[in-house]
Amino acid sequence: MTDTSQIVGGGPKKVLYTLATINRIGVGKAAKALTAKNTCKACAYGMGGQHGGMTNELDEFPSVCNKSVQAQSTDIQPPIPEGIFAHTISELAELTGREMERLGRLGVPLFRRAGADRFEPLSWDDALDHAAHRLAETDPHRTFFYSSGRSSNEAGFLFQLLARAYGTNNVNNCSYYCHQATSEGLATTIGKGTATIELEDLTGADLIFVIGANPSSNHPRFIHMLKNCRERGGQVIVINPAKEPGLVKFAVPKSPLSMLKGGSDIASDYLQPRIGSDIALLRGLAKAVLDQGTEDRAFVAQHSDGFEPFVADIQAQSWEDIEDICGLSREEISRVAAAYGRSKHAVFAWGMGMTHHVHGVANVEAIANLALLRGMIGKRFAGLLPLRGHSNVQGIGTIGVKPVLARDVLKRMEQVFGVSFPEEKGLDTMACLKRAEAGEVDAAVIMGGNLWAATPDTAFATRAMGAIGFKLFLTTTLNQGHVHGLGEGEVMILPVTARDEEWEPTTQESMFNYVRLSDGGIERIGTVRPESWILGQLGKRMLPDSKIDFNAFSGHAKLRDAIAAIVPGMEELADIDVAKREFHIRNRVMHAPSFSTSDGKAHFVVTPVPERGKGQLMLATVRSEGQFNSIIYEETDSYRGKAGRHAVFLSASDMVERDLEDGQQVKVSSDAGVMLGVATTFDLPKGSVMAYYPEANVLVGTAVDPRSKTPAFKSVAVTVSKI
Predict the structure, then answer these.
(1) What rounded mean pLDDT belongs to the chain?
(2) Which part of the chain is the Molybdopterin dinucleotide-binding domain (predicted)?
(3) What global pTM score does this model have?
């Protein structure tokens, strides 16, 4: 059995790992990259910008973690040696994700001709001319544009502008595979789709819920705030099927005392519901709050609607039913509800453990219900905090990289640019790929990310991507999505600058709705180009008669002027490069109970409990500590007993029931596919299984939440058997 009970998150080993990574890339280069006035390239928690590369908006220094260093280690690499491209694509496809990441930076445009077996370097002019020609000759309705969350606001705005001027609203981003359920669930309850708090609010919270997230691996800087909450007498309540060692105890490198004592206690209480049973647990917590009489009746009466049907629905469900579904006792649930009842300032933070379900929107609505029940939205030091992934994924959505724009925003765009845009509803990410699989997509423009690896059902992803006749990628490095799912069509890969290499300043938005300014300006590879420059060059070639001067609008100051004039709340963006004044987007942080719904009130929403098969194993895909999104930095997970990439984590009772031993080869089967893995005992509830993303994508089907269109990466019915 793998014993993780003594594992502590962070600590000296992480410090040494960070130092080793810095030494590998060069101390001078690393210091320049980490201290320059550029936003952190890792998670959307957000550091850097004009406060300094290792400083957050509260002027806390040093604000840096190993995720920041890992991201820099990728960007500081030299260009991929030209000899690599003498190898066939099938040979490159044999490399692991980590091996692909270590090849180096992409330094020249690459082209795979239709049916060819390898890439060939091209000049920039030839690459841009050919890409523009292929797109111009393609029916825009048979295309889609997809962006990751790494790009700047400026590049993202030009990206969606080019797509709509070209003639398609099939514009989407990676949020459809992560937090779109959050946006939808918050829209129905509070009328807005982002965090209601700012970073400073965490400094005064006396209770922080961490639900369906593992920030010890994915948002290490957030752990610092959790530790501080505990040290000032507050509570941190973790709700997660897996007992993650880094959420139990974490040695914060910034804190000498935390390091000396072998780690700080993080979770004051830890509930482990069965995978997929979150709604039952959240309803149970609400039921216990009502039983204990700690609801805020005055807030509810003055600032909410829908309370009576919500309460009637909660009270109609028995405790026996709740216990049976989530696997937790009434006593455990009531204990946590009592802690919540004592709280004056509670923050609810959650991750993709809540959104990656076919009922992900309802999960988020259930969280909002619980927060509203005690008036924890609309005041200082309390509220809602979705833990976003990539550094600018929220900003990409704010500036319009999505298939449906608000009518007033679309009209302002048309007025500013003097053009008309298509009116039909665009397709979400999964819908675009479904259409591609059906042979109805001829071209795709993919800016950043790894869409192939991010898509559930790897066989489906390969078929869908392979059926697209022309694929244009904009990327800093090669990844597995550039060598898998290529089909027989043409593939163009263009090398782009990293954030701190941009020719002009750019902006990014954190999960706290805070817009930062990145200076850029570092030169590492002279042959790479900014995304906005590439998009401007494509635009002027594809649409030579357009009223939009794409050449001029590849300049970031002009783009910011346009965003400020078009996107509500972004007015201060117009002079940010002159004033150097970073800002919170207007009307998002909620320190007063003023909701953006049609009636100005928060809405309680009835959240039915999803059905679950009796005795069914339910699998969730997870990330490792040495991983960021689909990027693999390390092959083993130091927070889960050095488990490898094909570990299949099961509870001790499920291991015994199936006569399995640690290290034994197993077959995991679902309706989507089969994965071979290694049985590994972990602290999980009976009936719950975990395996690593993206390797376990072979098991995940393409069914999506009907409202958010988000796939169910974290509730997959499986069987596990000996080989």
Answers:
(1) 94
(2) 617-717
(3) 0.95
Identical topology for domains 108-117+126-177+397-581 and 617-722:
no
| Contact (CB, 8 A) for 486 and 112 | yes
Distance CA 27, CA 41 (A): 18
CB 631 within 8 Å of CB 148: no
Comparing C-alpha atoms, which of 202, 130, 145, 125 is closest to residue 422? 145
pLDDT, tens digit, 9 for 90 and up, residues 225-280: 999 999 999 999 999 999 999 999 987 776 766 765 778 899 999 999 999 999 99
Name which of 256, 255, 250 is nearest 217 in CA terms: 250
Q: Place 28 in a pLDDT band, splitting at 50, 70 and 90.
A: low
The residue to which tokens 């263009």 are assigned: 494
Residue 199 has a pLDDT of 97
Burial class (CB in 10 A: 0-12, 13-18, 19+), 25: middle
Assigned token pair, 510: 């954190």
Q: How far apart are CA 68 and CA 63, in angstroms?
A: 10
pLDDT > 70 in the chain, percent: 95
- In angstroms, rounded to a whole number, what is the distance separating the alpha carbons of residues 401 and 171? 6
Could you tell me which residues come within 8 angstroms of residue 164 by beta carbon, excluding any fewer than 6 positions away?
A: 171, 413, 421, 422
For β-strands 688-692 and 617-622, DSSP reports them as parallel
Is the Cβ–Cβ distance between 190 and 595 less than 8 Å?
yes
The CATH code of the domain at 617-722 is: 2.40.40.20
The domains of the chain are located at 9-76, 108-117+126-177+397-581, 180-387+598-603, 617-722
Q: Which band of pLDDT confidence, cut at 50, 70 and 90, is reported for residue 5?
A: low
Q: Of 681, 613, 695, 642, give the one whose Cα is nearest residue 274.
A: 613
- CATH number listed for the domain at residues 180-387+598-603: 3.40.228.10
Mean pLDDT of 160-182: 96
And the tokens for 519? 């200076």
**Residue 571 buriedness (CB in 10 A; 0-12 / 13-18 / 19+):** middle
Token pair 């700690």: residue: 294
Radius of gyration for the chain, computed over Cα atoms and rounded to the nearest angstrom = 24
Q: How far apart are CA 53 and CA 395, in angstroms?
A: 19
Whether the CB-CB separation of 366 and 279 falls below 8 Å is answered with: yes
> Which residues neighbour 222 within 8 Å (Cβ) at sequence distance 6 or greater?
45, 215, 349, 387
* Spatial contact of 624 and 244, defined as CB atoms under 8 Å apart: no
CA 51 and chain centroid, separation: 24
Q: Spell out the SS3 assignment of 321-347.
A: HHHHHHCCCHHHHHHHHHHHHHCCCEE
Instruction: Give the integer Cα–Cα distance in Å for 328 and 339.
Output: 17
Distance CA 190, CA 211 (A): 19
Residue with tokens 């206690």: 265
Residue 286 above 90 pLDDT? Answer: yes
In degrees, to the nearest 5, what angle opens at C-alpha 698 toward C-alphas 446 and 147?
Answer: 15
Looking at 3.40.50.740, 1.10.1760.20, 3.50.50.60, 3.30.465.10, the CATH number of the domain 108-117+126-177+397-581 comes to: 3.40.50.740
396 closest CA partner among 163, 628, 157? 157
Task: Please say whether the dihedral angle defined by the alpha carbons of residues 91, 96, 99 and 100, taken in this order, is positive or negative.
Answer: positive
CA distance 618 to 717: 5
Q: How many Cα atoms sit within 13 Å of 294 on the Cβ side?
A: 20
pLDDT 10s digits, 515-555: 999 999 999 999 999 999 999 999 999 999 999 999 998 88
Give me the count of residues in the chain: 723
C-alpha neighbours within 13 Å on the C-beta side of residue 578: 7
| Token pair for 364 | 């988020």
